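Sample intake sheet
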Amino acid sequence: MNEQSSPTELTPLSDVRIFAARFAADLENSGEALGSLVSTKYEAFARVSNQVQPKWTAGTDVPAGSLDVEVASALAAVLTRFTRTPNQCYFGMWEGYAEFSAATEPKVMLPPEREMLIFTGPLSAIETPIQGDHAWRYPVRWWTEDAAWQVGADIYSTSVVVGAAPDCVAAIVASTQLHARALQPSEGPRIDDL
């Protein structure tokens, strides 16, 4: 992690090789399975709606591939309690969004065939858009240095998947600020149906 990062800023990861070896190698390249979003090595999984008002309980149109800042903040508040390294996290943003397509930072390929820019910083920085051009875009792939949990979604997803220990998933599902449910690995959700 870049030690010069401010508490509210995410900075580009200049060398993605170690990151790719540690985190990307555990993902499945199927593109249609839970394991393409988060490692299936975790004991428990949760599904969290991208918005405060989820599409599966209301007829609202949830923006795909982006987290509502309130959801990101509430999820980060829970996840902070379940890692020893909340100030050493990684965040993935698809480089195909117009505001990132000219980025020169190194990228890593993550399933399903998405080139991702990787940023580092504290988990608390998730409330700040990476570049500020589109304040509604926030990373939908998160990892913590101690690998206590992972958050993953595709650019077409309307929710994120969290892989973690059972007590962490229970806390996410119990949160009154999140619309979440436990997710079984055998459900094998299609990315666009999340």
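Comment: Residues 1-7, 190-194 have pLDDT under 50 and may be disordered. The first strand starts at residue 11 and ends at 12.
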